[in-house]
Amino acid sequence: MSKSSVSEICKNLDKEVESFRNRPPERRYPFLTVDAKYFKVHENNRVISKALMIAYGTNEQGHREILGFAAYRNESKDTWQDFLKSLKKRGLKGVIMITSDAHEGIIHAISEVFPTVPWQRCQFHFSKNVVDKTPKKYQTGIRAELQEMFACNTLKEARNKKDQIIQEYQDVAETAMSCLDEGFESAMTAMILPRGMQRFFRTSNAIERLNKELKRRSQVIGIFPNEESLIRLMGSVLIEQNSLSQSGKVIFKKESYEALLTSDVQEKLLVIAKEQATMLAA
User: Edge-to-edge strands of the sheet including 31-43?
Assistant: First the structure.
């Protein structure tokens, strides 16, 4: 292909990707999951890692949708705040819970940009954090205990299970038990939701699967020649993945969402958001 043909194709892709990632949200998105995936990019005659931040929302009709993405030099309080602000500026509304890993920049940005929205710490990452701090010979046992804790029917049962785990392993895994005690409440925000919704929003697994697909598709490239090519090519993959999500099964029915709005769930989530803000400020 000639250089002019390649250039013309890139221009068309750029228009499509920019239109997609800057489009105004069409609906309300009660649930938001955010994460970042790093890619190698050429910049100023050097190869550096850039974070591609992604926002994955679930709308009021139960469909998951990629709401936005942007490349940053790193993950920090400022860059995450800038990314979340861009979503809000485009019209993102109706968010009642945000799920992510425990990156300090994300937690800070949520408190600044969405101060009335509680944070759900990804249970998968939280469990891994606890297990990694545990001596190897106890890891299998603690992993099983944590799974039982996450499967509890009520928050009260989960707290009792947590206390039981700490009492059982405190002497042999003190650091891990401190991690469990300190991070427990933020990892249990989703338990306020109706039982049928909890498993979809208690982890960031959905966006992790998306990141794996981005990694797989980027392997043929290796190092991106510039940031524009990163946005262009990975943005094209995200457009494709978004179409697949839109055509998939709904996570919940619109009636379930409407019932949630008339319950006391939102009030309870607001209380949790205030508690988290107070703890962060301290």
Answer: 64-72, 46-58, 31-43, 97-100, 119-121
List beta partners, residue 54.
35, 69
Instruction: Report, in angstroms and rounded to the nearest whole number, the Rg of the chain calculated over CA atoms.
Output: 20
Give the residue among 264, 267, 256, 215 at the shortest CA–CA distance from 237: 215
Give the pLDDT confidence score for residue 105 in this predicted structure: 96
Contact yes or no for 158/191 (Cβ under 8 A): yes
Tens-digit pLDDT profile for residues 174-229 = 999 999 999 999 999 999 999 889 999 999 999 999 999 999 999 888 899 889 98
Query: Residues 6 or more apart from 242 whose CB is under 8 A from it?
Result: 20, 65, 66
Closest by CA position to 79, among listed 45, 36, 119: 36
Q: How many CB atoms lie within 10 A of CB 57?
A: 24
Nearest in space to 70 (alpha carbons), one of 47, 86, 59: 86
Query: Among 28-42, 115-129, 214-228, where is mean pLDDT lowest?
Result: 214-228
Dihedral angle of Cα 143, 146, 150, 151, to the nearest 10 degrees: 80
- Count of residues making up the chain: 282
How far CA 142 is from CA of 152, 157, 192, 251, in Å, comes to: 16, 17, 25, 30
- Please name the residue that has the structure tokens 């920019």: 18
Structure token digits, residue 246: 């839109």
**Residue range 99-106: mean pLDDT, rounded:** 96
Q: What is the mean pLDDT of residues 57-70?
A: 95
First to last CA, the chain: 60
